[in-house]
């Protein structure tokens, strides 16, 4: 429980929440980790939460959104993190009930609530704004995670670009990595893109969801959301370009190999044809003579060398 922006009470019974929010200048934060529907039943009664909002709080795969009810707002969002080695993106659902004097967070164990608390502790001057301050700290922490993840993905994609023109390319590995990153970008887009609407909705004046003094801070969060969204979209296009470029380079390398093989086959065909002709058991100019052997050998060398330099000049070898 916060009173005038200062933590006054912790670890009190859930039944006392409704009493504390009636006290002057008091704000209550309640935090749940992986709750069940039964766990939230008592809070539903204490704060008069809507049944559908409570159902959404324990449901999986909710889209990031803000729902408006008579006595409160319901927020759903996703924090994200990227595995640097595999390029796999993981998401952690974060949900919240927002009332005038109570803020309830619901999240999984994998979500770092300590980072949110640190952000609150780092801004004690804003704590007097109550629920608006707590909501800003949560959203700012989540959106900062989105932005950091986009930066990490950008660095991973730059490495892919560099490996495209490696003298010894590893195409299967590059393709696998590209598909992993593209899959992560799709998941990230699902988490980031709806946040524009979420933050924009919270800043609507008719909702009166935030303290007007906190509006610049929510505007800053909104700007970060826009930058993360635009960056995510550009990275998706970039990954697709890398995949297409890799396929084109593979085709070019195959054409180069076929060109070289064909050129060498043409050179090898010359001695094969000449020795095949002179290998006939029939009289021919120079048959069974020393000068015939010398002439045929010279012809093989001259034509083969001439073809080699001709192919080399045309960049076929």
Word description of this protein:
A seven-stranded mixed beta sheet has the order 2-1-3-7-6-5-4, sandwiched between helices. By secondary structure, the chain is α+β, with helices and mostly antiparallel strands. It starts with a strand and ends with a helix. It folds into two domains: 2-250, Beta Polymerase, domain 2 (2-Layer Sandwich), CATH 3.30.460.20; 257-313. It has helices at 17-20, 41-47, 51-58, 113-122, 131-164, 171-192, 195-202, 215-278, 290-313; strands at residues 2-3, 6-7, 26-33, 65-68, 73-82, 89-98, 102-107. The chain is built from nine helices and seven strands, in the order ββαβααββββαααααα. One of its GO terms (molecular function) is magnesium ion transmembrane transporter activity. Belongs to the CorA metal ion transporter (MIT) (TC 1.A.35) family. This is Magnesium transporter CorA family protein.
Keywords:
317 residues, alpha+beta, Beta Polymerase, domain 2, seven-stranded mixed β-sheet, 9 helices, magnesium ion binding, transmembrane, cobalt ion binding, CorA_cytoplasmic_dom
Number of helices: 9
Radius of gyration: 35 Å
Helix-strand sequence: EEHEHHEEEEHHHHHH
Which sequence of strands runs across the widest sheet?
2-1-3-7-6-5-4
CATH architecture of the largest domain: 2-Layer Sandwich
CATH H level, superfamily name of the largest domain: CorA soluble domain-like
CATH topology title of the largest domain:
Beta Polymerase, domain 2
Bin the helical content: 55-70%
Q: Quaternary status of these chains? A: single chain
The geometry reads as: rod-shaped
End-to-end separation in angstroms reads 78 Å
Average pLDDT over all residues: 85
**Which CATH class of the largest domain is shown?**
Alpha Beta
Low-confidence spans: pLDDT under 50, at least 5 residues?
Answer: none
Give a short account of the largest sheet. 7 strands, mixed
Which structural class fits the helix and strand makeup? alpha+beta
Find the count of extended strands (DSSP E, 2+ residues): 7
